[in-house]
Structure formats: C-alpha cells, structure tokens
C-alpha cells in the first residue's frame, strides 16, 4: 500500500489518518507540491488531475481522498476502527459526508488558505474572501451545533469517516481567528476536542513535525 502525497496537504492528511485508524501498514511516497512535482511525471500518471494524494494497492490506483478512504474503510472493515456501517446508519453518515464535502470544506479550505497559508508564504490576505467564507462557515457550524446536540458525532453516536474528513481543515483553522467560531458553540467545541485528540490524527501531526 502506497500513498503518494505531501504531509502538508489536507487531502493527503485525510488518507493518512484513515490508514492509521485502520491500523494498516503503508508507505508514504513524498510528492513535493511546492516544487510542482504533482503536476509532472511520474505523479501525473497516477492522477491526471495533478492533485495529491494518489493511492496504490497492488494493481489498483485511486485518487480523490474521500474515495480512497471509502475504499479503505470497506476493504478493511474488520481492521482497526470501524469507520463505516451498513443500512440506515450508513445512509445517515453519507448525508453528513456530503455536507462535509460540499458545505463545510469549501469555506473552511478557503479560510485556511487566506488566514494560515498566505501569511506563512508572505501573501496578502483577501479580507473580502475571509468575510464571505466566515459567514458561510457560521451557517454550517450552526447546523452542526444542532446536530451534535442530538448525537456525539456527526454521523451518529460513533466516530466515522464523516468526522475524520473534517480533521485536517479544523486543525488548520484552530491556528487562526476562526477558532472562536468553533469555541463559541459548546457541542461543536466538545466534538472538535474529541476528534482532534484521536491517536491516529496525532500520528499524522507527528509526521508533519518530522517533515
């Protein structure tokens, strides 16, 4: 099992966290996105869209982090943490997985770029983009607060891929002014504290630190 990616990439972090949750052995093949290695061969033969990560297992190659994680969770259902379920429970989880991908992630990713990445690389923060995406994130977190008052995790009472997929963006935003939006909602705040403390995620952070 090989993950071609960059430990600083949010999408790569999603897959690494899933592999650690499933207690699987894998090899990380570094792809330096700062030098544009993800837009060149040999990586482009693994993902024609030139985005990390790519995943290899035997003769199968996959890309798109959420699809990779669904494969891992299904193929290794009996290993490590159970991240997916059958029937009604899975249907509910899939709804919230879509919410993460289409409602939470776009705003959270843009805020992370403007408030964390840009200052690190000496870029100018786009205040209008920050304002616009903070408003979108507020709407999502208000809905999350209601949901998390009903269940411990977004997909139900068990930690699933739904929660895992949020981890990299939430961690990045905790180092910005947006942290207050999470802290001010008690159920969201408790959920963040819970998932950010998971051993699998801490292993990914250790990989970043070593990098």
From TrEMBL:
SUPFAM superfamilies (UniProt xref): GST C-terminal domain-like, Thioredoxin-like
Coiled coil feature spans: none
Sample GO molecular function, one term: glutathione transferase activity
One GO-annotated biological process of the protein: toxin catabolic process
Reaction(s) the record says it catalyses: RX + glutathione = an S-substituted glutathione + a halide anion + H(+)
CDD domains: GST_C_Phi, GST_N_Phi
Limits of the GST C-terminal domain: 86-211
GST N-terminal domain: residues covered: 1-80
Keyword entries, A-Z: Transferase
Cross-referenced InterPro entries: Glutathione-S-Trfase_C-like, Glutathione-S-Trfase_C_sf, Glutathione_S-Trfase, Glutathione_S-Trfase_N, GST_C, GST_Phi_C, Thioredoxin-like_sf
Recorded GO CC terms: cytoplasm
EC number: 2.5.1.18
Gene3D superfamilies per record: 1.20.1050.10, Glutaredoxin (3.40.30.10)
Family of this protein: Belongs to the GST superfamily. Phi family.
Name this polypeptide is given: glutathione transferase
Organism from which the protein derives: Rhododendron simsii (Sims's rhododendron)
Lineage: Eukaryota, Viridiplantae, Streptophyta, Embryophyta, Tracheophyta
